[in-house]
Write a structure and sequence with these properties.
Oligomer: homodimer
Number of helices of chain A: 9
CATH superfamily of the largest domain in chain A: Tetracycline Repressor, domain 2
CATH topology of the largest domain in chain A: Tetracycline Repressor, domain 2
Helix content of chain A: 55-70%
Distance between the termini of chain A: 55 Å
CATH class of the largest domain in chain A: Mainly Alpha
Radius of gyration of chain A: 21 Å
Structural class of chain A: mainly alpha
CATH architecture of the largest domain in chain A: Orthogonal Bundle
Shape of chain A: elongated
Number of domains of chain A: 2
Largest interface: A-B, 41 and 41 residues
Order of helices and strands of chain A: HHHHHHHHH
DNA sequence: GATAAGATACCTCCCGGTCGGTATATAGAG
DNA sequence: CTCTATATACCGACCGGGAGGTATCTTATC
């Protein structure tokens, strides 16, 4: 995969401009996850990608711009998938299960993105911060709408506010990135199923069944 | 208070060393929460406390040392309270409710500590990181033990692993600091009660009762 | 030649940390 | 009580280094 190893000034035959950008993003993804945004210098990113600052500033406006693009590509992806679920004709409760799975799947499949989004968001400022926050809120709102619909339909108890349910579920899912090990024995689908069961059916053993 | 190597130190009565130190900690608490550890310079902390770098380095070994002390004072406090709950003679399920409340109460009452612990932990290194991680794990373990006891006693269903239940609950509670507004209408006790109900009794409305 | 893609040298800024000095309070000697 | 020695508490000028960012030049493609 890594074809470009030229530290000298030579252009390979089919050189790929988009590939260079990707390489920078991928290096940043790794380094930001490992060491955090502030503790990762431009120099490190550029060396990791076997490039130079010149290349970097040809593709990005600033270090913050890179951070924003990383977060944006994840949010856009999650937003798209979440919309697909909410716009489906599945029952509200099934949509909730699907959203839980989507969220956890994101954690499992895109760890660096999630880590960076959760931990480095505050390094964004101004418009970029607003943009990312807005998109995050949109995803949250999709959860909230679905949950509210489930409550209104009488499928979920109405003595707990939908807002609180939403935050509870989001928290459970978001927290997974703190402990879930993709290489462990537990598959993310199992986590999703058990979390869903826990929230929807409850934990208490009583005499009703 | 941790003093490992000391050479017969005694505090003169007339001075107020603890006050100065507190002022530095309090300034750091505010600034770290607002701007993050890396984006807060020593100069800012010291200016905010109306002191100088000289004073700072008289009380702390380094910037990281200050960060560690802040996290430590929170963890010690939570650990103490959590132990008290687990060592009580309340029923396991009631202990779980109490632990959930403790965790959420921490978020509400010590926002800056929680924010700094959750977001800036990675800025610690070596022994200090290990120490904080160990104490965090101890708190988590108290949750886990209690939950396991509840499952073993037959109070909670046994088809969801205690470990997963623990992480679910911890996530819900930890996430609260992302959205909970202490000045809002909702009291933290209500959040705790509703989260407990959600997890323990479940959300689904069925015909069995 | 125009333009894109990238390399290299360089700039300014400010960060964490140091270090010598000073002021204050207490303890002990006389 | 005063005088002095000493430890604490704090000040603030200073430093090396590395940070993000820029200017300018070179090379490849059309």
């Amino acid at each position: 995969m890594v074809e470009k190893k030229s530290s000298r000034r030579r252009w390979p035959e089919g050189y790929d401009p988009a590939g260079t950008r990707r390489q920078l993003v991928d290096s940043a993804l790794r380094l930001f996850e490992e060491r955090g945004f502030d503790r990762t210098s431009l120099q490190q990113i550029v060396e990791d990608a076997e490039l130079t600052k010149g290349a970097f500033y040809h593709h990005f406006q600033s270090k913050e711009d890179l951070l924003w693009q990383i977060q944006d590509e994840y949010l856009e992806s999650q937003l798209k998938d979440a919309r697909k679920i909410v716009e489906s004709d599945a029952a509200p409760v099934e949509q909730i299960r699907a959203l839980i799975f989507l969220s956890l799947e994101g954690v499992a499949k895109h760890r660096p993105h999630v880590a960076i989004f959760q931990q480095e968001r505050r390094n964004l400022t101004g418009e970029r911060l607003e943009d990312v926050t807005r998109k995050r809120d949109e995803v949250d709102a999709l959860f909230n709408e679905t949950i509210t619909r489930a409550v209104d339909a009488g499928d979920l108890r109405d003595d707990i506010s939908p807002r609180l349910i939403t935050f509870g579920i989001l928290g459970m899912c978001a927290w997974a990135f703190q402990w879930f090990n993709p290489r462990g024995t537990m598959k993310i689908k199992d986590v999703a199923d058990q979390f869903s069961a826990m929230i929807l059916d409850g934990l208490i053993v009583d005499s009703r069944n």
